[in-house]
Amino acid sequence: MSMLLRNFLVLAVEFGAALLLRAPEAPWIPVLLAVFVIGSGVLHGTEAEFVPRFVVALAAVGVAELGSRAWAAPDAVATAGTGAAVLLVVQTATLVRYALRRTG
Predict the structure, then answer these.
(1) What percentage of residues in the chain have a pLDDT greater than 90?
(2) SS3 string of 32-68?
(3) How far apart are CA 50 and CA 17, in angstroms?
(4) 24-54: per-residue pLDDT in tens?
(5) Torsion of the alpha carbons at 30, 74, 77 and 28, rounded to the nearest 10
(6) From the CB of residue 76, how many other CB atoms can be counted at a distance below 10 Å?
(7) Long-range interactions of 70-73: CB distance < 8 A, separation 24+
């Protein structure tokens, strides 16, 4: 159950960031920083250390950025969508691996 909640939280943040970043004059630094912070904190309470948290956070930033590019330019959907799909697979695999691992 916690794995689903963690994954939905990160997906919701990525979707919100993609919506905010589709305008060309959007404030991208604070939006991507917030995505990175939430992405790195979503594994709190698990045995995940620096590397898995960093992987999830960078994948979240990448998905948000590629999602905003695909949303802004419909002709870039194939390229950005493929990249975002690969990053989502990496992110979900890392979340599943560490969220299902029992502590103690």
Answers:
(1) 37
(2) HHHHHHHHHHCCCCCCCCHHHHHHHHHHHHHHHHHHH
(3) 23
(4) 888 999 999 999 999 998 888 888 888 989 9
(5) -10
(6) 13
(7) 71/18, 71/19, 71/22, 72/22, 72/23, 72/24
